[in-house]
Amino acid sequence: VSRQLKEEIRRGFARLEDPLAGLLAMLESSSDWKGKGHSLGYCITTELQLWIKAHPAVPQPGTKLKKLQARVLGMLSQCPANLLDPLISIYQLHTADRNYLLEHVSHLYLQGSYKEAARLSIKLKLQPDQDVEKMCTPLLLQDKANLVEDYVAEYPELQRKLLQTLDTWCDPNFNIRDITRPYQGLSRYKPDKFNRRVLSKLVFRLLERFSIDSALCPNVTNQRHLRTLNYLFYKRFVEKTMSEENWADHIQSTVGENRWLQGHLAQSLLRHCGARGAARWARHCRLPPEMLPWAVAEELQELHIQDRVEEVTKADNYEASKKKDYYQLPIPRGNIHFLQTWEETLQCWEKVLQPGQVVGVDMEWKPSFGMVGKPRVALLQLALKDEVFLLDLPQLLEQAEAEGEKEKLPHFIQMLYSDAAITKLGYGMSGDLSSLAATCSALKDTEKQMQGVVDLLAVDKQVDGLSPEHSHEERGARQPEKGLSLLVHHVLGKPLDKTEQLSNWEKRPLREEQILYAASDAYCLLEIYERLCKDPQNFGLGSDLMDSLVGKQSKKPRAKKQLNKQEAPSPSGQECQGPRTEPSRPAAPISPQQFSVVCDNMLQGLGRYLRCLGVDVRLLDNEDDHRKAAEIARQEGRVILTSGLPYQTLRSQVGEGRCFSVNCSEKAKEQALQVLQHFNVQLSLSDIFSRCQ
């Protein structure tokens, strides 16, 4: 607003006998202020607000102010958001009769103006006198979850009431149509946005935002734990990529004393292990006998000590044979140090913080399996040429805080990452550092200060011959390697044993298998780096690439986030698609309107992003089987976008080039760029939001 206009507005106010009535008369006779943006009406209103502060007027008589308040209340439902606060301030609506304000909001609600009623309630702080379920239900049906969050933001009691209501709706026995029936004629009603899956996500978001214990929402929490239970059975009995001890740890921490989950566990054990195997596991997991199916309970009575001895012997033999197939640490077990005291850690620092040192860095945390909160680092691994240090981060942080020196650990880590004279090796460092920042807030800027860092995730994209399918054929039935394990296999000859990857890293003491896994994950980085530096050409790397990496890298390469160490990322989306071939001619350019895809259920963020760019997208629901993507692709001529293990299955069910594997650890924007580049989709400004209604 020009200075001249501001002065003219203020002179106008000075000439008016009653500026408040004058402003209302102007707004009532005009409509330009109803639009978004800075209209003339908005400028005049905000200038009056400032003018009143500078010229405190004689207080308005009570009856006169009440009349003005009644008039302005009638206008507020039509106001853009930027006018609400100035008008409420000018006409002192916070001092108006509370019952009168509640009655006005109730009138808006009965008219079906639910958003306006909620917005005005927030501004006038009326929520404690309203029914939170009644106010929020139509907003959720209109997909206005953000407004619902704002509505309860300042009221812990309302937050709890809302969460308990949402949790009740998520009970599998609750008929959700009982909620939607009264609102059938609701404008902007989005039934696809009102289901247990969406509501469950909202519950976990609210629990995290308002730091509320998830025990308040047993239905949603149980359903999430049940999905975790099913996932663990898949990892152990279908993929066969999780050790017994590791699996048992997670099963016990997931199920605990919850009788509902114990019942599901008993049924899953019977289905996957048979009655005899289920009985053994039921005893191991201490399931109450009354929770067991009849066949399992009978087997439990007949079990003898000898059965357990045979089972242990069989497992030991299996572990011994397995060692031959995987990468083994070349240093003695005595050179792996698990550090829980500051005295030990200081000795570690002296060795690590030496100019010219090369350090392999890795971190482990307990997998969240979709529960609330960011992962917190439980173990920091530092590998040197002759020894590996495993730092028990929770214990060291607790000890430092008790001694009043909580900056001690962040100080060491910042010194390590910012010293250009020390080469730090990692794999997907960005994900590790974001978890480190969640563990210790003092480390949130570490990524910006990094120097002398080599992220091997950026290097392995350029290493020749990395093909999950190729390595899969060589090894028969095992799951195809990916991520760091694939790089280790290609450069050092054997893959990493990842059966401990999903361990409970917070449980103490760590098992021997966990200690060896953690040490191997960090130490293998040293061996890969040394091999690539010695003979870069053998791996299809230019010597100039290695020259740029050896101790000189001051900025991190583009790293992939790994918020959950459930799956290491593939080296890149395109390399998941098969062995490398000679470069073929690029595909002919197409527009987003000509590009049709079906997104697997782990890529819903990517699907929504592509839809915003004008791409024709179908999304699988969380409950859908991955194979449904192949059915849709064949029926509608769509390209499948998927990630990880399902890619191996889906690519064989559609034509060549009709299935693309995306890196699940990247953000939706990076995934979308990768897809558009691969299929040569040419984007124009008019495509953006072209599919939005």
UniProtKB/TrEMBL annotation:
Residues 336-537 form the 3'-5' exonuclease domain. The keyword Repeat does not apply. GO terms for molecular function: 3'-5' exonuclease activity; nucleic acid binding. Signal peptide: none annotated. InterPro entries: 3'-5'_exonuclease_dom (IPR002562), Exonuclease_MUT-7-like (IPR052408), Mut-7_DEDDy_dom (IPR037432), Mut7-C_RNAse_dom (IPR002782), RNaseH-like_sf (IPR012337), RNaseH_sf (IPR036397). Residues 553-563 have a biased composition (Basic residues). Residues 565-575 have a biased composition (Polar residues). Residues 551-590 are annotated as: Disordered. It holds the Pfam family Mut7-C. Keywords: Exonuclease, Hydrolase, Nuclease. One of its GO terms (biological process) is nucleobase-containing compound metabolic process. SMART domains: 35EXOc. This is MUT7 Exonuclease. It comes from Promerops cafer.
